[in-house]
Amino acid sequence: MLFNSFPFVGLVLCTLLLYYLPLLCRYQVFVLICSSLVFYAYNQPVLVLLLLFSVAVNISTSYGVVYGPLSWKKGFAIAGVALNLSILVFFKYSPLFARTFLPQASSLGSFLLTLPLPIGISFFTFQGISLVVDVYKEKYVSNQELVPRSFYQHAKQILFFKGFFPQLISGPIVKAHDFIPQIGNKKWEDIPWPAVFKNLVTGYFLKMVVADNLKDFTFWIAFPYFQDFSSFSLLVMLFGYSCQIFADFAGYSLIAIGLARLFGYHFPDNFCFPYIATSFRTFWKRWHISLSSFLMEYLYIPLGGNRKGKFRTYLNLLLVMFLGGLWHGAAWSYAVWGLFHGLALCADRFLGNRITLPPGRVSRVGKGLLVFSFVTLAWLLFKLPDFRQVLQYLSCLIHNVRKGERSDLITYLLLYSSPVVAYHAAYLLRHKTFFQRIRKLEYAVYGIMLFLILVNSGSSGAFIYFQF
Q: Rounded to an integer, what distance in angstroms lies between the CA atom of residue 28 and that of residue 269?
C-alpha cells in the first residue's frame, strides 16, 4: 500500500477516527496495531506471518535478557541478534548467494532465487536488533521502561514498536530506547498541527511532484537507452537522478514523521539538507541519518571505532560502509557503492589534517561540489546494478560529446530538479535578513506546493527505498 494511494488515505482517516474516539481511548495501541497489520498485508498477506515471527523472536529474546536467569542473559542477547540477522540474510541475500555460488539449474539455486523479498525487512530487522542490544546493555533507559514485567504488555509494545505503519516499510529506523518510552495514551488537542501540515505537504510534494515526474526522465539512464544521448545530457540525467533519489526518500521520511506526529509519536529527522555537505563525513551526518547513526552506534563503535589505532579505524570504516551498502540491496553493486563511500570517508579522515585550504566561500563551494559530484556519480550503482553497464555509461560520458542534445529532456530534468536546489538554498540562506522577510509568506509557498500536488503530480510509483 503506497503512501500516495487512495486506499492508504482511507486507512489513515479511519484509523485517526477510531484512534481519538473517546470510547476507544484505552485501546489506541490496538487500533494502530490493527491498522499496521492491514497496511503490511495489503499486497502480500502471507508475509505478515514473517513479520509476526520476527516480532515473536524479539519479544521472547528481549524478555529473556531482562527476566531470564542471569547466566543466560548474554545467550538470549546473542540469540536475538543472530535470529534477526538470520531472517534478514535468508530472505534478502539467499538469491545473491545462489546467483554467485550455485548453478542456477540446481534445485537449491532455483529455490533460493524464488524466495520473496518482504518489503521493509531491512528496517524492521534493525529495529529488532536495537531492542535486544538496548536491553542487554541497559545504556539509555532502564530495562523496566523497555520491558515491563507483564509478558502480555511487553508483547503488545514490541508488536506496536516493530509494526507501526508510518515507518514499517522504509523507516526512519526508530531505535527501541527512543520509541518505547513514548508509548501511552494520546490526546487530539496535543497534535502539533503546523508541524504535521508542513511535514506532510513537503513530503508529498517531494515525492509526487518532484520524484515521480523526474523518474519519467531519468528512466533513460537505463541500458541500452543511455548510449544514444550526448555527454551533457547524460550529466544532466545523473543530476536529475541525484535529485530524484533525495526527493523520493526524504519525501517518504517527512510523510512518515508527519503521520507519526498525527498519532502523537515523534520520529527522528532522517535528512538534513545533505547536498550542502562539504565533506563525506558531514554528508553521512545529513543523509539517511537514522541508518548512519544506527551503523555508528551498533556496529562501528562495537568494532572499536577510532579507539584502536589508525589502521583499525580505516578498516572499521570500510567494513561498516561495505555492510551498509550491502544492506541497501542484494547485489554486489550496492556493496561496491558502500566501499566507495568507505574509501571517501577514509580519504576525508586521512587528508583532513594534512591539506589546509584557505577559509572562505570559494573553498566551501569547491568542497561542496566535489562531495556532491562524487555522491551523484556513485548513484549510478543504484540505477545500473550491472557493473558493465556502469562502465559503459562512464564511457559514453567521455565519448558522446558530439551527439546532439535533447533540449526538451534537459529542460524538464532541470525544471523538476529545481525544487531540490531551492530546498537546500533556503536552508543556506535561512539567517539572511531578506530571507527572514520572505519566511512570512511561507504558508503561501505551502499553498503552492499543495496546488502542484493536486494538478502536477507525476505517474504514481513505488518509493525507491521500498526495495531495501
A: 24
Chain Cα centroid distance, residue 356: 34
Q: Report the first-to-last Cα separation within the chain, whole angstroms.
A: 16
pLDDT of amino acid 395: 94
One-character DSSP codes across 165-223: HHHHTT-----HHHHGGG-S---GGG--HHHHHHHHHHHHIIIIIIIHHHHHHHGGGST
Residue type (1 letter), 195: A
Distances in Å between the Cα of 203 and the Cα atoms of 172, 253, 348 are 13, 7, 32
Of 26, 3, 20, 2, the residue nearest 262 (C-alpha): 20
Q: Which residue has the cell 551503523?
A: 295
User: Cis peptide before 172, with omega less than 30 degrees from 0?
Assistant: yes
Lookup result for grid cell 531540490? 420
Using N-to-C axis directions, what is the helix angle for 310-327 and 332-352, rounded to 10°?
Answer: 150
CA distance 166 to 200: 12
Distances, alpha carbon 287 to alpha carbons 113, 159, 172, 282, 292, in Å:
32, 28, 11, 9, 8
Active site residue 424: no
In whole angstroms, give the CA distance from residue 20 to residue 17. 6
Question: Which position among 154, 177, 288, 328 bears the catalytic label?
Answer: 328
Distance from C-alpha of 348 to C-alpha of 440, rounded to nearest angstrom: 39
Measured between alpha carbons, how far is 190 from 60 in angstroms, rounded to an integer?
A: 34
The amino acid present at 454, given as its one-letter code, is: L
**Residue that is written with C-alpha cell 572499536 in the block:** 304
DSSP category for residue 213: H
* Gyration radius of the chain's alpha carbons: 23
pTM for the whole structure = 0.93
Note the Cα 369 to chain centre separation in Å. Answer: 23
For the chain, which residues score pLDDT lower than 70?
104-105, 353-360, 465-468
3-state SS assignment for residue 391: helix
CA atoms within 13 A on the CB side of 162: 29
Angle at alpha carbon of residue 166, lines to 165 and 167, rounded to 5° = 90
Residue owning grid cell 544492506: 327
For residue 400, the 8-state DSSP code is: -
User: Are 326 and 89 a contacting pair, CB within 8 Å?
Assistant: no
Alpha-carbon span 51 to 121, nearest angstrom: 8
**Digit-coded pLDDT (tens) for 412-444:** 999 999 999 999 999 998 888 777 777 778 889
DSSP helix/strand/coil, 28: helix
Structural element, H or E, at residue 289 = helix 289-295
The neighbour count for residue 437, using CB atoms within 10 Å, is 9
